[in-house]
Amino acid sequence: MASRSIKNRPSIKKKHPFVAVLYVLTILFAVTVAGAVGVYALAASWIEGLDEIDVTRVEDMNTARPSEMYAADGTTLLARFQLESREPVGLSQISDYVKEGTVATEDERFYEHNGYDLKGIMRAAYVTLTGAGREGASTITQQFVRNTLLADEMNDISLKRKMREIYLAVKMEETYSKDSILLMYLNTINYGNGTYGIQAASQLYFSKNASDLTLAEAAALVGIPQSPTYNNPFYSMDNCIERRNLVLNRMCSNGYISVEERNAAQAEELVLNPSLPSTTGIMKYPYFTSYVRDLVSNNYQQIDLFTGGLRIITTLDVDTQEAAENAIRTKEESISPAIAGALVAIDPANGYVRALVGGKDFESSQTNLATGAGGGGGRPCGSSFKTFTLVAALEEGISPETIVDCTSPADIPETEYKDDKALKNIDNINYGYRSIKRAFAVSSNTGFVRLQEAIGRAKVLATAEKMGITSDLGAYASLTLGEQNVTMLEMADAYATLANGGIHYDAQPVYQIYDYQGNLVVDNSNPEGTRVLTQEVAHAAVEVMKTVVSTAEGTGRNASLPNGQPVAGKTGTSTDYYDITFCGITPQMSVAIWFGDPFNQEALPAHLGADDVFRTFMSAVLEGQAAQEFPTAKDPEYKKDYNNATYHVGTVTPQTQQPTATVPVTNDPAADPDDDPDDPDKNGEGNEGGENSNPSTNAPGNSGNGDNNGENPNQPGNSGDPGDTPPPSGGDDPGTSPDPGPTTPEPEPPASNGGDGSSED
């Protein structure tokens, strides 16, 4: 038998909704109560208030729209967020088999009635009264009304609810065409497993569009709504097939398909091809995507992320993210299964987060090691924090050529560093007296705690905060040593301020957000920055930070880039190597990198650094691009003859002169004479500040000018200063702790020793 078109239908004589209710009630009462009076009054009371219901509300009811998140290219789908799986489509996007099967099974006279089916009602009443069972009599329109306008009364099985349902169904039919009602029904009905609508069901069970369903597949889906759990093929294939065959029988008896088509479809094996949605809705780059999800949910209260049908365009660059993932994973694999890495890359020109890696396996742990979300709370960044002390000193007018006491150990007045808690450099190496610039390059703990105390902890803390550090930090003596927890997101954001010449942009992962109608509701395409440092101070800081990468004694030499691109940065290591960091900048990108055991059970290998990860990552990001220079400026106006005798900053103490040793300076780590592949202490992954590869020698100083190298021609060398002896690159100075132990994710602020130099350089 040839299939007849579902569009061929008779004209329908319309009835007023109240008349329809009276009509049905009168017949029912004639059958059941034989002449009962008061039908009119009863009907009026039951439908009270229904006239005030605007049936057009159904267009926005029970049709929650999923929100989608994209990368900066606007095409790479990162996530789809929804409370329920829904995907409304047009009638032409639905297979005729679905439409015909639904009508044949749920409401065979759909195109003949005006909202209710009196024949069906009488048949159901007869079956019920005779005790032959129960039979439904709800039309497709009534079912839709029940699921939307009367959803609060769905579990009420009284005659009153049925009459209210009929009343609104007739109003619906007066307002909408049959095809419109059928489409709304097919887009909202429950197909099981939290899936609503035929398109979402087609994707869930068969991974195809509703327009592409075969007859057997369409019949299987049509059969599910009658009992979404019992007829669910995931739970019982037998029940699903039994219901499918019933649908096929009704399609055949109603003339939609031939007997041959029915028999062939019933004999067909039902093969599922599930497309199970992520339980989180996240499809790619889960640490970045969850970070944006939480930010949107918390910061944009007018937006309903899970029902609003939003289109979120993020700032993530796919190529940059892939480079970050590859660099972090390669390093992780070379260390230990317990070690995880994190990386944040920010565009200094606007604060856009271009890449974010927050952990090793999102399914195993949703703690975001880059943002601190999920219970992470950040990690110690070690001597990467010394950058803020450097900037604070420059703002105070202290020249980077100012001499600072870097001897070790150090008994510093009015700090917790005393007696057996004496502050030390790495391996207690004595760096003697040297410029702030060179103290930064080797990451001297003693020198930078003295500098911090000279300018004031509050000043250092305020500088860090205005540059982008938002964690609640205490003004402890160990502040400059980075023993307190911060996030790599904060560090990348703060360092970006220097790369951008002193202008700070808040880290921003969201570019634009559109509502479901395409209206722009959030626009961060033109962010406003705030100047927090003078261009002169930013320039001076960057010039000092370059020495970490570009000089032989710098602790981050492995961060140098092969194309000659200028790099500035700072290494960091925490107590006993439980955390290592490298924060580096170029004019194009600010990057913060961390490695460690998130559970603090396993320390990192000694002398391991993260600067080589920066080089791997940035080499990929900048491949094929010409080198760019940092913003330039004149030097700040420095104080003349700055001298703080209390903390030995600017103060010069004569020492015994030693012979001078000259060491060549190179920007190429491969050319460094200390890069011995057979010696792990000289392989480019040494301790920050640990310039001498043999600490047992106590790093005897150079003769002659020692550390001065022209910084102060009147200052003799220091016998305990290793001078220009180059350190192995890549690590940081974790110092020496009298009571060593792992740094916890939330360290207790030091009371007696303030960090005693145990926190990295």
- Principal-axis shape equals elongated
Number of strands: 18
The fourth-level CATH homologous superfamily of one domain is Biosynthetic peptidoglycan transglycosylase-like
The number of helical elements comes to 20
Uncertain stretches of 5 or more adjacent residues: 1-5, 31-37, 652-731, 735-760
Helical residues, percent: 25-40%
Instruction: Provide the CATH topology of one domain.
Output: Penicillin binding protein transpeptidase fold
Q: Strands of the biggest beta sheet: in what spatial order? A: 2-1-5-13-14
**Average pLDDT figure:** 80
Strand content of the residues, in percent?
A: 5-15%
Task: Evaluate the radius of gyration.
Answer: 37 Å
CATH architecture of one domain: Orthogonal Bundle
- Sheet with most strands: 5 strands, mixed
Spatial separation of the terminal alpha carbons: 86 Å
Kindly name the structural category. alpha+beta
CATH level 1 name of one domain: Mainly Alpha
Family: In the N-terminal section; belongs to the glycosyltransferase 51 family. In the C-terminal section; belongs to the transpeptidase family.
InterPro entries: Beta-lactam/transpept-like, Glyco_trans_51, Glycosyltr_51/Transpeptidase, Lysozyme-like_dom_sf, PBP_transglycosylase, PCN-bd_Tpept
Pfam family, one: Transpeptidase
GO cellular component, one term: outer membrane-bounded periplasmic space
